[in-house]
Amino acid sequence: MDLEEAFHVVGEFGKYQKRLAALLILLQVYMACQSMLIVLVGATPDYRIEKGKDPTTQQDLVKHVIFTEDLDSIVTEWFLIRHHAYKVSLAGSLFFAGVLVGNVLFGPLSDKVGRKPVFLAGLLFEVLFGYATAFAPTYEVFAVSRLLVGIMNGGMALVSFVLTQEYVGKSYWAMTGTLTNMMFAVGIALFAALGYYVQSWRALATTANSPGVLFFLLCLTLPESPRWLYSQGLTQKAEDVMQHMAMRNGKEKVVVKLKLCAGSAKAGRPSSGVLELVRHPTLRWRTGILMYVWYACSLVYYGLTLNAGEQKGNRAGRRKTTAAFLMFAGFSCMVTMFLPNHLDLWLNTTSLALLGKLMVSAAFNIVYIYTSELYPTVIRNAGLGVCSMSCRFGGILAPFVPSMKGLHQSMPFMVFGLSGVSAGCLNLLLPETLNKPIAETLEELHIPAYQRILEKEVYPFGEDQPNSKRKAQA
Predict the structure, then answer these.
(1) Which end of the chain has less Cβ packing within 10 Å, N or C?
(2) Burial of 31 (0-12, 13-18, 19+ CB in 10 A)
(3) What share of the chain in percent tops pLDDT 70?
(4) How many CB atoms lie within 10 A of CB 382?
(5) Using the 8-state DSSP alphabet, how is residue 200 labeled?
(6) 49: enclosing H helix or E strand
(7) pLDDT value at residue 220
(8) pLDDT for res 317
């Protein structure tokens, strides 16, 4: 049997896989705390400067500045105010620069050496660098530690997301992917509550980082991704993992026997690398479109968030749903160009901007799942990493778009609208993945989806195969 058939036999989402997915989904809370740390530890309290003084050096600031608000942060400890205030933003920028680097490095690495070792190494070092942040003796050490935490956080986020997909059957990918993204948002809310009760910035950094130790110990028991093992031609190891899943799911009598994965390294093909995203014609086309879609999602989402601040499971299909949400977001932004600035009705620029943000948020969630389904297992993390990298560029440019109001009041919404509509239209050029078998190797990209369905005998709506046929295949 092939891998999809094996998942039907051992259980696509049995109790063991539920525990694996729950662990990785809850890990998002820890990762969200690390992402948002600078928001609270870098808070700037009110302060006053002694009369007649104009402090310029760090020593002068310490002598002549008095903080009038009872707040403990890196600002109050290292006097990061006035011409040193940029250092707070710099620390935050270094973290997200690290996330970008981690996206690019960890994806190809996990495709080459395995999901589990790369994931565990990233988690371990994120915890260690997290404690370096909490006990940093100087600002310089703090800033470097944020860069290193960002690299680990960004890379590990990709690998953990892919693991939540590859531990379960394809019909559950939408659910696990959505829950992963939702839990990250929950983590942000929980971190805000934690910051309310833990006032010292060092205590807050330590408290937010400490759950990582528990998660690391629990994750040591995670198995390697059976999909990755199978795509690499490590059939025996993939069988062992699937057999273990069957036993933990209460199916001790099931025997898993996988056929050799055609096109794998063990079957005579060299292992895939990130350059395949450029060399392979199908992947080159998909990657170009997906990079733009991710970029547009990030640009519109963060741009609307900033601009608003200035203005007081299974779906119909991945391809059409993503395109629809992006185009709805784009059209919502474009309609605002024709409305008065202060229209005192429910239909105004603010409400349409919020509607656009809602639509692009939905598109953002789906595009994560859609992208992981479009790439074969052998290069899935590398593809997600490159797309996530383009997403960061959208986030980088987003703060500058609202300032285009200086050219024309409607210019920011025109940029957001055209970006969303164009990304939605381009997305329609990609193939649908709903109820289609997942490609494990590059060779399977050349096989039409309907043919893979017939060859693998995967039923289009995920129903189980007849018992007699499953027994014959086993």
Answers:
(1) C
(2) buried
(3) 84
(4) 27
(5) S
(6) strand 47-49
(7) 96
(8) 67
Helix and strand numbers, DSSP H then E, in the chain: 20, 2
Mean local confidence (pLDDT), 70-78: 89
Cβ within 8 Å of residue 214, ≥6 positions away? none
**Any idea what DSSP says for residue 178?**
H
Q: State the CB neighbour count (10 A cutoff) for residue 6.
A: 25
Checking if the pLDDT of 122 tops 90, the result is yes
Spatial separation of the C-alpha atoms in residues 224 and 222, rounded to whole Å: 7
**Do 126 and 118 touch, CB atoms closer than 8 A?**
no
441: which 2 tokens? Answer: 């190797």
Does residue 229 contact residue 256 with C-beta atoms inside 8 Å? no
Q: Which residue in the block uniquely carries the two structure tokens 């017939």?
A: 454
Take residue 1 and report the two structure tokens written for it: 């049997």
CA pair distance 432, 449, nearest whole angstrom: 9
Q: Are 423 and 297 in contact (CB under 8 A)?
A: yes
Residue 367 contacts residue 383 (beta carbons within 8 Å): no
**Which pair of structure tokens corresponds to residue 221?**
């028991």
pLDDT tier at 462, thresholds 50, 70, 90: very low
Do you know the residue count of the chain? 474
Q: Whole-angstrom Cα distance, residue 319 to residue 109?
A: 28
Highest mean pLDDT among 47-56, 145-154, 261-270, 344-353: 145-154
